[in-house]
Amino acid sequence: VNTNTAIPQQTVVLSSPATQPSNAILYQNAPNPFKAQTTIQYFLPQQATTAYLQISTSDGKLIKQITITARGKGQVNLQTAQLAAGTYRYSLIMNGQLIDTKTMVLQ
Fold first, then answer.
1. Do 55 and 68 touch, CB atoms closer than 8 A?
2. Distance of alpha carbon 49 from the chain centroid
3. Tens digits of per-residue pLDDT, 42-54?
4. End-to-end CA distance of the chain, in Å?
């Protein structure tokens, strides 16, 4: 029996995770529910060519479309003094594709 057999070795390189995601992200608005103002945060990757938020009623009627020009993490402060209390939806569209839709409640 040869006891000098080499033990297999494996090298593993550890690296920190990416500090920014590579895909677009739509975050839940805060506060929610809200009274007169809420903040919607998002992340857009650098390769995004067009992006916007759409705000609509719960039955799908478009109220507002907001063009987003900055890339990376950003936010939109939404003031809703002219809207009636109820449930609304907001969607992130990037490069012509729906990324995500979330629900917010105006009291």
1. no
2. 16
3. 999 999 999 999 9
4. 80
18 class by beta-carbon count within 10 Å (0-12 exposed, 13-18 middle, 19+ buried):
exposed
pLDDT digits (tens, 9 = 90+) for 18-68: 444 569 999 999 999 999 999 999 999 999 999 999 999 999 999 999 999
Q: Count the neighbouring beta carbons within 10 Å of the beta carbon of residue 80.
A: 18
Tokens matching residue 66: 């907001």
Give the Cα separation of 1 and 36 in Å (integer): 80
Q: What pTM, to 2 d.p., does this model score?
A: 0.78
Closest CA to 54 of 94, 15, 21: 94
pLDDT range class, residue 82, cuts 50, 70, 90 = confident
